[in-house]
Design a protein that fits this description.
Elements: E1 8-12, H1 27-42, E2 47-53, E3 56-69, E4 86-97, H2 106-121, E5 129-134, H3 139-144, E6 148-149, E7 159-164, H4 165-174, H5 180-186
Parallel strand pairs: 4-5
Antiparallel strand pairs: 1-2, 2-3, 3-4, 5-7, 6-7
């Protein structure tokens, strides 16, 4: 059964959150959360957010800065007039759902939160894309939620994907009343 977004809470990882019981199907993701996430965050290398449901850690995602080569982006994304060789991006460095909560909407909720963070970030610094180097098993998940394969792939063990979240935002805003920009203005 899907867990409604309103029943989930998100918080920045801190020492008071017990992450010891978290397990996902990818041992290296579990290991990162338990052994490295807090240290990386303290060193300002990444930021990890924890997803809680009824007091239990059911997921986490880690974000960092990135850029994507303009030539890797489809002509339908980005801006034709943009003169620089890279687009500024927010990278999903890690994203994992507790194995007992897979298929219940936790991953989707984490992606929605990431888009919200990217939108807020883009009000302060340049940020146009969300990137991820997906493991082959996870590629379908990201494609389902609007990510596209980068046109240039130099990686061997992961698949570089991106999403022009601002383009998605513009398209969504066309059909909304009131427009999304009203909510942007309220949050300032």
């Amino acid at each position: 059964m899907k867990i409604p977004l309103s029943n989930l809470s998100f918080s920045l990882l801190n020492e008071d959150i017990d992450i010891s019981a978290f397990r996902c199907r990818e041992p290296d993701l579990t290991e990162f959360l338990i052994e490295d996430a807090l240290e990386n965050q303290a060193a300002r290398l990444s930021a990890t957010r924890i997803v809680l449901y009824e007091g239990q850690v059911v997921g986490f995602f880690t974000l960092t800065n990135d850029c994507i080569i303009r030539k890797s982006v489809s002509d339908d994304d980005g801006e034709e007039w943009y003169p620089y060789p890279h687009y500024p991006a927010l990278k999903i460095a890690r994203l994992a759902t507790h194995q007992e909560f897979e298929g219940r909407g936790i991953g989707r909720a984490m992606l929605l939160k990431t888009v919200a963070i990217a939108m807020r970030l883009s009000q302060y610094v340049g940020c146009r894309m969300i990137t991820v180097d997906a493991k082959p098993k996870s590629e379908g998940f990201y494609l389902k939620y609007g990510f596209q394969k980068a046109l240039i792939n130099k990686k061997k063990d992961t698949i570089p994907l991106y999403r022009d979240f601002y383009r998605s935002y513009q398209e969504a805003e066309k059909g909304m009343s009131p427009p999304l920009t009203v909510f942007d203005e309220r949050s300032r």
